[in-house]
Every structure is written in C-alpha cells, then in structure tokens.
Amino acid sequence: MNDRAVELLEQYDIEVQRTRKGRGAIICDTNQGCMILKEYSGNQDRIELQDRLLKQIAQAGLVQAESIIPTRDGELSVKGADGMNYILKTWQDGRECSIYEKSECVEAVKLLAKLHGSMKLPSDTQGIPMAFSPSKEYEKHNKELKKVHKYLKQKGQKTWFELNLLNTFDFFLKQALSVTEEWKEYSEAQSHEAAPMEEVAFCHGDYQYHNILRGETGWFVVNFEKCLRDNPIRDLYLLLRKLLEKGNWSIALGTDLLEAYEKERPLPAMSRIDLYYRLAYPEKFWKIVNFYYNSGKAWIPGRNQEKLEKLIAQEKEKQAFLDEVFRNVENLRG
Q1: More exposed terminus of the chain, fewer Cβ within 10 Å: N or C?
Q2: 95-123 burial by CB neighbour count: b if 16+ within 10 A, else e?
Q3: Where are the alpha helices (DSSP H) in the chain?
Q4: Span 173-230, pLDDT tens digits
C-alpha cells in the first residue's frame, strides 16, 4: 500500500498515535482503538450493504466483527491521490484461527452459525441485490472447463503437468456437468414451490481462517468485502472444504463440524442438499485448471502438479465422505 495513503486519515475524526504496515494495509493505533486502512475496490452499493450488515451484526451482539468508520463528512470510503478508494475499519491484533486445532475449527463453525443469525434483511429493503445463482456460476465454470479441455487436446507438445491434467479431465468434467445438471433441476423445482420471503439472507462471502482472528477479547471476524445475497450455506461450504481438504476428507471431522453448526443453527433440508451439491462439484479441479489456463504456460509451477496429485489422491475419500455424511440426500430430494 502507498505510504501516502496515511494522509487520508486526516479526513477522520480520530487521533492517530502510531501506524504500522499490515498485509496490504496500514494498521493504526488511535485514541478510539486499533483500526486498519486498506484499499477498497467495490462500488458504493456494495459498501453501503456491507455497512448495513455490519451494523446489524453489532446490534445483535452475538459476534465480534469489524465496523466501517465514516469520515467527518459521513463518507464510507475516501479516494487517495493514486485514484484508489480506501476504507477505515475497526481492527484487533490477533492470530488467525488454526486449521490444525480441531477445537478452534469447531469454534469457527459455531461462530459462523451465530453470525448467520444476524445477517438477514427485510425483503423490501431498498436497493437489495439480486440473489446469487450457484448453478449459473457452475455453468460458467463448465464452459471454461470445456474450453481448456479442447485446448489441451489440440495442443502439440505437452508438459508432464498437462499430460496428467488431460488424463484426469474427462472424469472431473463429467462430474462437473452431472452435479450442475442435477442441482439445476432440483433448484428450479424448489423455486416453483417456494413461498415469498419476508427476509433475505446474506453471507460473509469469504469465511475462512484468514478472516477469523483470535484477539484479547475473543474471536473477531473481518473482511466482509465479499458479502453477498446467497444461502448462508455458502460460507459453511467454503470453510468445510478448506478444512476437509487439509484433513483428507475425514468423516469424523466433517460430522463434528456439521453438528457444531447445527447446535447453533439447524439446517433445513434444502440447505443440506445445497451444501451437498457445493461440496460434490469439483471446484478444486476447476481452480487448478483456471489458474493454469490464465497464467503463463511457458513455465508451470511444481505446486500445480502437487495440487493436482493431492486432488486425485483424495477423490476416493471425498466420495466416501459425501456418501456417508449425506446418504439421506436422495430421500430429502424426493
């Protein structure tokens, strides 16, 4: 971050005592506590939505989360000399949630369930965004996968990574297409039966261990910039996938994490089915393919090969996890 951005702090009604560099941001010790100044790339509607949700979370008092500090003029963001927008938010010094400590993973899931209880807005709220469509997102991913598949088949001399990727492509592409089609059919059937909602749900959008901090006053959730209108199961899916990939799709770990969430916030049948399809879609494969295709192909990092090998090695465990933990999904869909 440009050090000149510190000058922007003069637009706030705070007394800055000290500043220090953080990860892509400037951490400020002030007379009103610790704060963080960072770049903001979203539009005005998004930051207003973020601010409204954060105020609602604070009012509910169930979860400690960041809040956006307005300028003296009441603006939620300021423009720097570099043309970038910046936002100032409350902050707590602390460490990230440890993905290697099961007790902390369980705490993170419980925290998420409480957070979701505070992230609903009345359906008649002015300027409320359209709901995100996971099936449309995966249809887009599928088109990208087909494009890369065709490219690899037509490519002449292939690297070892490209040969391995091509050898597994048919399996994962078929899986992606099948999951997307099933999910789309189910979602369309449910949408015809759904009653009008008085409230609409939002989710954090990037709920992972980097954004769950342990400070002096307990857990503190940050970086709500990707918040969006979607089934809150989106957050649970993201956290579960990250943790289960690290834990080799342990059935015991997954079961304990789901139980921890449902003790705070029971999952309706449709949300459980939603979670199943999000986990069943080969998103990790798409990420590997997308990174490969959109980066320079003259030199392919060895890390790509490692990720592909790990994905393939875990596929059996992943399917066993889905079959065991979601074995009642067929009955729920019926």
Answers
A1: C
A2: eebebeebebbbbbbbbbbbbbebbbbee
A3: 44-60, 102-116, 134-154, 160-193, 233-246, 251-264, 269-280, 283-293, 302-325, 329-333
A4: 999 999 999 988 887 766 655 556 678 999 999 999 999 999 888 999 999 999 999 9
